[in-house]
Amino acid sequence: MSNNEADQVHTYPIPNDAPLDPPAEWAALRQGCPVARVKLPSGDEAALLTRYDDVKQVLSDPRFSRQLDAADAARISDTESGGLFNSEMSATIPQSGAGHQQWRRLVGKWFTAKRMAALRPGIEAMADRLIDEMVASGRPADLKAALGFPLPVWVICDLLGVPETDRDRFSHWSDSLLNLTRYTDEEVERAHHEFSDYMAGHVAAKRAEPTDDLLSELIVATGADGYRMSDKELVATGLGLLLAGHETTANQIGKMVAMLLGDRRLWEQLLADRSLVRSAVEEALRLDASGGLGLPRYIGEDTEIGGVLVPRGTTVMCNMSAANRDERAFDHAEKMELGRTPNVHLAFGSGAHSCLGQALARTELQAVLDVLLRRLPTLHLAVTVEELPKLEGLMVGGLREVPVRW
Predict the structure, then answer these.
(1) Beta-carbon neighbour count of residue 386 at 10 Å?
(2) What is the DSSP letter of 352?
(3) 179 with 392: CB under 8 angstroms?
(4) Distances (CA, A) of 391 to 26, 146, 148, 204, 383
(5) pTM score
(6) Which of 77, 172, 358, 370 to pair with 5, CA 20 to 30 A apart?
(7) CA triplet 320, 321, 323: central angle to 5 degrees?
(8) Rounded-to-integer distance, Cα 354 and Cα 343, Å
(9) 2: helix, coil or strand?
(10) What number is the average pLDDT over the span 56-60?
(11) For a pLDDT cut of 90, what percent of the chain falls above it?
(12) Is residue 152's pLDDT more than 70?
């Protein structure tokens, strides 16, 4: 790589006006600067990885911590606390080693593909109900507000046994805690305290009167080695599930539908062959150009990545969205191929910390797409792709609105 490229410091996330396409810099960096210097929203500097093999290498290596509590680790957000990755949640739930595996085994029992498949009829019924309300309100409609945003929070609240009347509060807390720039330190802190207080009361209520939900099961669940979650861990788990399972899926529903409607031939292809729904969801996950920051990792020892020596003490940002467009890993990487198989994308990460809820996310996305194809075959964007308004400031990128007609 040239000294110019190696020395240049990019603002991160890299600014991009295109709603669905990636910034041009990704391809240039993959080609000529696999370990690039970037400045985070906090002002701290980190290294950016954009190649598939490099991102997979770092995410799969247990030596590299996702808990950014080292004195020389970069802060992510511009809030004093450093944002979600430096939060109390990260400190409460073990982030590595045997402790993390204990926690993951207990929670993971709920997130099997088989168990998520059993939830699908309920998710489809929720989607049908929301589409009924959207159609009754008339067109054009904002698909994200009407369907994409409420559905995942309903599902998470259902998993946690949260009453439907409290779901709007969960939406607010999720937005407050995942936004990098919109809220002040005080507002983020207040949302965190409100959520923690709510969940502490909710855990106590479930302990007194358990029901058929994840939280009730976790209260009494015991690992093979006798490990049981403390109340503090249960509260942090509830927070983790909300943050990981709401905004990400809400945004992905909007982006997926926009991608498929942006080129009408893709939507028509799905209408003609519903068996493509599963692989179409995977391709939408792979091609998502606004996946946000990616995943940070703290490099605790001198390490070679992509032929570059990365010194100990570096925080690297693993950009899975950029890696998923790497021509070295995918033929015609920039093209949406609904039947692409295999499709070993990195949208859910890789290794021991790959997304615990990926089976749930896939189930929700497939259910939504199936219901939309059945209910609204004439669905189309009410604006051009270029006019789709982008969502700024969240750790997970997306579209502010997805205006549609039918």
Answers:
(1) 11
(2) G
(3) no
(4) 19, 16, 14, 37, 16
(5) 0.91
(6) 77
(7) 60
(8) 16
(9) coil
(10) 97
(11) 68
(12) yes
